[in-house]
Design brief:
InterPro entries: Phage_holin_4_2. This is Phage holin family protein. Pfam families: Phage_holin_4_2. This protein is mostly helical and 130 residues long. It has one domain. Helix content is 65%, strand content 8%. The chain is built from 6 helices and 4 strands. The protein has a two-stranded antiparallel sheet with strand order 1-2. A hairpin with a 2-residue loop joins strand 3 and strand 4. It is globular, with a radius of gyration of 17 Å.
């Protein structure tokens, strides 16, 4: 449960980073980003797999690039639900989904399932790193 809360906070930070970096995304405050992350997480868990399955032929034809369109549509749906979270247009949603995806991936790659930081220690033994 702690890991879920940490990932939720990481997604909130990613949304705030997208709002800071892109002029087409506006967040009125931390609480709006927090609730937007909650709605985005729920949509990604429930609706995104169904959309990916339904658009599988198109996704195969575009070599997976249509996934960015699906992510942008999810972001625009969240923008319609949360009043303090606004996306100016489709291209802002595309670039916002890219920024949110990259920042979220970078932040959550350092967190394990229990919500703790993982540290990998490498030692050199007999010329090899282990």
């Amino acid at each position: 449960m702690k890991g879920l809360l940490v990932r939720w906070l990481m997604l909130t930070v990613a949304i705030m980073a997208a709002a800071y970096l892109l002029p087409g995304i506006q967040v009125s405050g931390v609480f709006s980003a927090f609730f937007a992350a909650a709605i985005l997480g729920i949509l990604n868990a429930l609706l995104r797999p169904l959309l990916l399955l339904l658009t599988l032929p198109l996704n195969i034809l575009t070599l997976g690039l249509f996934t960015f369109v699906i992510n942008a549509l999810m972001l625009m749906m969240v923008s319609g639900v949360i009043s303090g979270f606004h996306i100016a247009g489709f291209w802002s949603a595309i670039f916002g989904s890219l920024v949110i995806g990259i920042v979220s991936w970078l932040l959550t790659s350092m967190i394990n399932d229990q919500g703790k930081m993982e540290v990998i220690t490498l030692q050199q033994k007999r010329g090899r790193w282990e």
